């Protein structure tokens, strides 16, 4: 084997090793990484997931979902660590549902803390809009890029002193 052949073989092996290391450094799209916390930007995003974001960008940010059921991508761990993303027929995020543990409002309270609804209500106008399965729902509305967006808080009682059980960030028509 000549010196030139050995150098070429060495370069190929180094290139292959570099490719393996680069692939290992990238987030594994196939691995499900549960979303266990983050920040809620009222009317816009939660844990880096924006309404209107495409599925490819969502997968780059969060990886593959733990489970997919039709248009629902599940990134949580059971009901106590719920984090579900609903995509519309165009493949864009239309709704995010999550349990409050581990999440906080941007420049606001932790969602799982006592008095979180009252703290949010001091900054955002919350309206008691419905009762789902005997659970009251408080809603904050906003217009984002010309679209009406709701941030909804399912609580354990119909008062701002109640605790948040489930949070939904969604477009008004989804």
Jot down its keywords.
174 residues, alpha+beta, 4-stranded mixed β-sheet, 3 helices, 12 strands, 35% strand
Write a concise synopsis of the structure shown.
With 174 residues, the protein is an alpha+beta fold. It has helices at 3-25, 55-62, 116-123; strands at 38-41, 45-46, 49-50, 67-69, 72-74, 83-87, 93-98, 103-105, 127-132, 135-144, 147-155, 164-171.
Count of alpha/pi helices: 3
Radius of gyration: 22 Å
Strand content: 35-45%
Biggest sheet, spatial arrangement of strands: 4-5-6-7-12-11-10-9
How many beta-strand elements?
12
Number of domains: 1
Q: End-to-end span in angstroms? A: 67 Å
Overall shape: it is: globular
Residue runs with pLDDT of under 50 for 5 or more positions = 13-30
- Estimate the helix proportion, in percent: 10-25%
Give the helix/strand class: alpha+beta
Q: In sequence order, what are the helices and strands, one letter per element?
A: HEEEHEEEEEHEEEE
Mean pLDDT across all residues, rounded? Answer: 83
Biggest sheet features: 8 strands, antiparallel
